[in-house]
Design goal:
This protein is an alpha/beta fold. It has five helices and nine strands. Helix 4 runs parallel beside helix 5.
């Protein structure tokens, strides 16, 4: 046999067996990871962290221990619970508006949230007036959150920041984080 044919057959054999090994190794394997945080069991499927909250599955972008390291004024959660919800307001012309809309939608699946804009648009106009717990979120140069006079001011720099604050609100609301 020609030396080139033998080398080609060996390479083909190695390629076929490696693909077969990969396929066999993936069959029946659950690629998700499970872990416990406080009294909650989380499952990570490679994209989202899920746990059961009030009898329903809830998903998160970040694990609770990551959120616990993020500065967040939990006084807002206490006030919003007393009010049984909050106003979520943002500038509709902000470059992160799509991320804010997703955050608003996700929060409204769990909490009574009234959507608003800071100026005329398809939602009512609302600002932080001190009478109702309100989240005012907008894009800035540094990610921060502060709480004064019933107003949680969130400055996000990227869509990742928006997702992080979304998770923080839900983790604290449900008591996953104290």
């Amino acid at each position: 046999m020609d030396k080139k044919v033998v080398v080609s057959l060996v390479i083909i054999f190695l390629m076929v067996t490696s693909v077969a090994g990969f396929i066999v190794g993936q069959q029946g394997s659950d690629s998700s990871q499970t872990f416990r945080y406080n009294d909650y069991v989380f499952k990570y499927d490679g994209q989202f962290f899920t746990t059961e909250l009030d009898g329903e599955d809830a998903f998160f972008y970040f694990p609770p221990d990551t959120i616990a390291l993020t500065p967040f004024p939990t006084e807002f959660i206490d006030d919003a619970r007393l009010f049984q919800g909050f106003i979520f307001t943002r500038n509709q012309n902000d470059s992160l508006e799509e991320s804010y809309a997703v955050m608003h939608f996700d929060l409204a699946q769990h909490i009574a949230v009234q959507g608003a804009y800071t100026e005329e648009g398809p939602l009512p106009v609302a600002t932080c007036d001190g009478s109702t717990p309100t989240i005012f979120i907008y894009q800035g140069n540094e990610s921060t959150s502060t709480y004064n006079d019933a107003c949680l001011e969130i400055v996000a720099t990227t869509p990742t920041d928006v997702a992080l604050y979304r998770d923080a609100i839900l983790y604290y609301w449900y008591g996953v984080l104290p």
